[in-house]
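User:
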Amino acid sequence: MKKYMSFEDFYKKSQEGSHKTNKRKILRSFIALISLGALCFSLLTIFKWQKDNYQIRQMNKKIAKNITVNSKDNETFSVSKDNFSNLLAQNKDTVAYIHMNNTNVNYSVVQTTDNKFYLNHAFDGSKNDAGWVFMDYRNNIDDLDDNTIIYGHARLDGTMFGSLKNVLTSYWQDNKDNYIIYLSTLKENMIFQIFSIYTTKNESYYIMPNFHNNTEKKKWIKTMKQRNIAPFDAEVDVNDKFLTLSTCQNNHGGRIVIQAKLIESQDR
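Assistant: Predicted structure:
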């Protein structure tokens, strides 16, 4: 004999099915809402990233437009004293102007009382995650330390120190015109010769500004030269003054490092 369920059982079963359907709908709606939120956040992040980079590019174009560069056959690069004074008038934190061949590095360099402010502030002091190129607060531009350190973010579009990834390529390294870094200050124009390029983890050793003695400095020099991956043959010793450029290589704490020694300095 065929057995039929009671109305009460039928109603109870239908309600259970309805609850399960509602739960699935709520879950799908929740997942869709989360996905939409993540998409909106990503789009806003990309928009802000592009906006910050655009503002930095425009700001630097304006600065560079008012800079008269004294150069000859790609052998020298210097910023006039009047132009430098103009940079100081725009930002009293200005300490130098840096230029590297075949990179986008052509920026005024600032310095303040810490290494944090210019990580997320532009040359004009406005909030900007692209930051600006800045000198380590421990350094003294008027009386060079053993090692002068300059930092900048590695923006993907090449803004700030983003183009320093070029130095890791054989194409860049094979051109000896690229082995020079020009640094102008209010008092002098300096030329540095690159002797080491490498990548490393985030550490404090390569960004030591001074050494306690020549033995310590000699050991540091040996380590920096051993890390080099480029075909340089520059002679380096404890009497040299050094310049270190540091930027991020990746999101895991890696760094791209360029180190050079002072080979020429001309007072204004």
